Amino acid sequence: MVVTNHGLQPPARLHGLVSWQANKVATLGARLTAERMPLGARADFAVLAALEEYGALSQAEIGRRLGLDRNDVSGILAQLESGRRVDRQADPGNRRRNLVTLTAAGRQYLEELQQHADTVQAELLAGLDRTEQRQLQSLLAKLLDSHAAQPA
Questions:
Q1: Across-strand partners of 100?
Q2: What is the mean pLDDT of residues 43-60?
């Protein structure tokens, strides 16, 4: 049973809904993340993780992969570029667009942000043993993969 800070339990009809439970877990995760990582750093983490995994990407492709508006991506990249965490160069195949790449400073910053994310995940999942954590992650991935991708 889920018990709030005030000892009150939600109605069983709500508690039995996976969508309600997932929303509560998402809210808890967002609160824990906000305690450990400023809002800008969360966006930085997403962009840097995409560049690390997929290599050089255009600004538009970053937005599509992350479900972010192009103006938001532009602001995030400007901030990362000012810190020399990413580099933008003209795409040799299409001079009208830039390719964004991760720099060594960006990789180091991504590792710092990963440590914060790992701390949040450990706190969020503390009520589960390692096997249960892996099962939950696997089931959530399966569930998400069974539906069309949604914007962030």
A1: 57, 88
A2: 96
User: Which pTM does this prediction carry?
Assistant: 0.83
Q: Could you tell me what percent of the chain has a pLDDT over 90?
A: 77
- DSSP for the chain? ----TTSPPPPHHHHT-HHHHHHHHHHHHHHHHHHHS-HHHHHHHHHHHHHHHH-SEEHHHHHHHHT--HHHHHHHHHHHHHTTSEEEEEETTEEEEEEEEE-HHHHHHHHHHHHHHHHHHHHHTTTS-HHHHHHHHHHHHHHHHTS-----
Distance CA 87, CA 31 (A): 32
CB 65 within 8 A of CB 50: yes
How many CA atoms are closer than 13 Å to the CA of 30, on its beta-carbon side? 8
